[in-house]
Amino acid sequence: MSVKPNSQTKKVEKIKQGPPKRGFSGWLCVAMAIIASSAVDAAGFGFVVPPEPKAFWTASLTFAFITILLSECVRRFAPSIGSTNNSRRSWAIGVMVIGFCIEMLLRFFLEAPYLMDSLLLTLLRNVMIGLATVAHHPLNQGPSVALSTFVFVFASACFDSSITTLPWCTALSIAFAVTSIVWLGARYWERLNITLTSKVVQRKRPWWTPALAIPLVLPLLIPAARGRLIATEGWLPTSGGGDDASPMARDGIGNGDLLVAGLDNIRSFAPIENAPFAASHDPTLYDVFDDSYNENFFNKNKRQKVISLAPEIHALAENHRMAKSKKGSREFSTVRRPGKAKSQTLSSIDSDALIYVRGRLPLHLKLESFDIYDGVEWSAEPLPEKLPELSLETVADRPWLRLGVQTKPGDPHAAPEIHSIKVINLKTNRVPAPTQLTGISIDQLNRADFFRWEQPDIVGVDRDSLPELTTLHVQSRLVDTRKLKERDYSGIFSQQQYRQFDDGEASYRIRRLAQRWTFGKQKGWEQIDAIIKHLREEYTLDDSARATGDTGHTVSEFLFETKRGPDYLFATSAVWLLRSLDYPARFVSGFYATPDRYEARTGLTPILAEDVHCWAEVLVQRDYWVTLEPSPGYAVLLPPLSFAEQIAGILNLVYTRLLRYPFTSGALLFLLVIGFIFRRRILDIGDVSILRIRALINRNYSALNTMRTLDRRCRRVGLPRPRGVSPRRWLEHLADAIHRQRADPKPIESAQQRAAEPFICSVERHLYDPAVLCTKEHSTRSPCVAALTMWSWRNLAAIHRSSGQLTQPHYSFPHPQHLRVQK
Amino acid sequence: MNAGTNTPASQPTGLAATIDPTNGLKKIDQIRIRLEDALKGKQDVIQQVLVCLLARGHLLLEDRPGLGKTTLAKALASSVGGRFSRLQCTPDLLPSDITGFSIFNAETRQFEFRSGPVFSEVLLADEINRATPRTQSALLEAMAERQVTVDGKQHQLSNDFFVIATQNPHEQHGTYPLPEAQLDRFTMKLSVGYPAADYEAAMLAASVKTEQKTPESISSAILAAGELEQIQDLVTQTRVGDNVQRYLVSLATASRNHPDIDAGLSPRGLLLWQRAAQATAHLAGRDFVTPDDVQQVAFPVLAVRLDVEAADSRNLISQLLESVEVPTEPTS
Fold this sequence. Notes:
The complex is a heterodimer of chains A (823) and B (332). By secondary structure, chain A is an alpha+beta fold. Chain A is built from 25 helices and 17 strands. A seven-stranded antiparallel β-sheet of chain A has the order 5-6-8-11-7-2-15, with no helix packed on it. The radius of gyration of chain A is 40 Å and the shape is flat. Chain B folds into two domains: 3-224, Rossmann fold; 238-323, Helicase, Ruva Protein, domain 3, CATH 1.10.8. Helix content of chain B is 45%, strand content 14%.
């Protein structure tokens, strides 16, 4: 009651005194803000881009005029603005919000967004001017000067010789330095005066305010850089280096526009045309394979046999030998030197990654395919005479090489998806890409004749190798095997080379094995899956194991004798088993991008030398290849699931788990249902337990905590205390209801109520008696326990069941003498 | 003559010693018993009358004739041990009939002041709305300042001066409704109402047995001179936490913002409300005020100030009390 008249009196006194005077230091604050604002314009962050002397002066003088006018208006007509911390905060936030609104309007209506740093600096400048306009209150001078200094230093750091306003920048720097020094002096003397005459009352900040920063700080405290990256990703616009190119982003650091264009450092991110195609001693693709699997050797005991080979294949093999030192397409032997491969690091380049991949994982990147197998060696697939024509089209300002893949209605494909591949250390001219490739894009490369077919479904560039740090975007589409029908697997239209199979004894055993594995399975994916599953489950992946080749058929040796081996034996066996059942299949080598190596910091997955991998592909319909992964521990990228499929998948998983663990699931479900039904009761038990634990720790019950527990209990039961009713009246009202409900109350209940009466008195005293802080709290254990018993969950629930919501008690009160007698 | 003054009831022997709260409450309880004997079955009304007395306020009784208003006032006057004056207000009642007047004494050849009925401890102004506004306003200074000014000379009234005014709300002819300024000087407005049937029967029976002895005729004062003032001082010492005071302010603000209330509670009304709540707490034997005390006196305190019909006022006050949350955080 007494506060209100005082504050009014103060206001009246202030009005009588007239507007507050702006001291010398106040004027200096305004001057510093104007100089800092001019520096922003001079540096080219403001409205004047690029800064020219005439436009710079116009903008600077306009801002100076606005600042002085606004500060005078605020001082004369709204002197209360900025007079308190809260008011200053509101004013600063208001100014900032207005700046944001203007920017939004510009962005949406004029489609002229500020650059992000310009926007932030402009907002800071707005706040700075806002604070300068209320600098007649000494309270605001510190923040105003601090912000002016920051803005000026930031803007002056961007002064360089390229800007035409450089002479004025020097003058501004001198002016700001002089003004700030004079302000320090003026402020010192004024503060002395204020200290002698005024009394500063500081309001204590609520204890919980630091908790507001927890959501911001917590992600940054997550171990490793990954958490910080996730926490900050998307907050600032970026351009270059990734898929994003925000119009609000200025040049980035290390990955900006200049780098993307290759103008800054050609080796950092080189477009093909400007790339240095210098020869180097970096490992070739074949070196990488040999490093991983050891070199092949000629087996003297190799059993010669006759296999059916087309004459042109033999001729092609000759060609490959000629080109083996530089190009791919040579044979792949399944007989290699024993022992674990020596790990070799690449010394010429800092990174040990061959390529980086961005996109969904796991990913099989195909580099070479093989079709003819002679029992030991795979022959590379020849280039057919007729291949689709390569053409170039521009999509979203990006050139895309189209591989002439026709899209037919009813295609069993999922939606196309794009993976980005950055070549680091790999020396091959082939584009590592997933199967069913449909398009390739290299930035600024707009010539289709730069590409050529290397093998079916494999494209290379017309150079010796892909330049370092080239980024490729490859578009592919996965075959959704669920959409395939039985006839799609017949492979009758496919070339014979994919169905090559011999009639030797070993192959006969292999066919019998395949038939045994697929017995009872429907032709098509079911049989293929059965073969792959058997291989993955019954055979052991062992990179150090080697086939001897003594039997002349490494597949037979692997399947029936050793039953362990590296991935190429798995892949060869898979192909041979599939071919034995007349499925057209081929052997593929390349890289496997494993999700284990995914780096959240960069969003990339490095592929190292040891990630070379061999797998199988099966042909469906006429010309769609499906990746098969027979090696255990490897996985195949599945088509992206639609939302409905994801939901169905989750439901299916839950259903499967329920069926697999029926008793555990049933018990869990039962507990969940019971927990949900009795959730309020459980919460109440927890509440009372906490109360009792606190009582144990403090060696005494707290009447207030007990009252709050009872309050929550009433709410959970469904008898919430009305807002206009005191705890005493509500508890007494409930006690009356308990007694009314039982016409013949047991003596114990009356005793409970009598015992609980001191509890209510204690609550009232703690709540409303200003002198209670000075008195020592008496033991309230018994009354609190009695109150918890009197207004127990059972009693309250009984009232709720019988009468539902209790009517609010009337505002009539018992005889005061009655209360005194009870007390 | 419209006004009459009774001699003071016989005082308890001896000077009033400093009274402690326990003894004070015992004496108040004796007064309560005497009032309950006089006005049977009206404990609630008696409670509020006592609250009003201890809060040093004035009481407006609004009801039909014959419901015991005068009986109540007389019983109270006899209990507090002071002079009782009754003022039957009529349109021809003059201000000097209330305050007193100066008369020329031929022997001393000087004007002498003859005090009016306001110079008493308990003043019953019966049917106050029948007096002219000029006469009504004569009571203003007496009620607010506890003094009267006659012929430019101030005369101090008793510290225990307590006005019980009555009015009949159902007779509107020839009446002058009390102005807001005067209404605001009353702490409470109460309605006695008809007694319950059992109490009426008991009253009849008591009347037959003790036909010759009315309660006031046999009564003697319970409080010694000055004791009421001491108890009233004790009431003022009852502590009020800042959360309860904020609660009071919230209620006052709610009354000012209520769409059906033209003029909300005045600051003076708020002060009287707090004092009444203190008196209620004191009567309950507490030395601090709770929101229940505030609510308990809300109806009589607000009823005299809200310019609405009696039937509506109860609903409105209930709405006000329901709309403001009772503080459940400790006082700071």
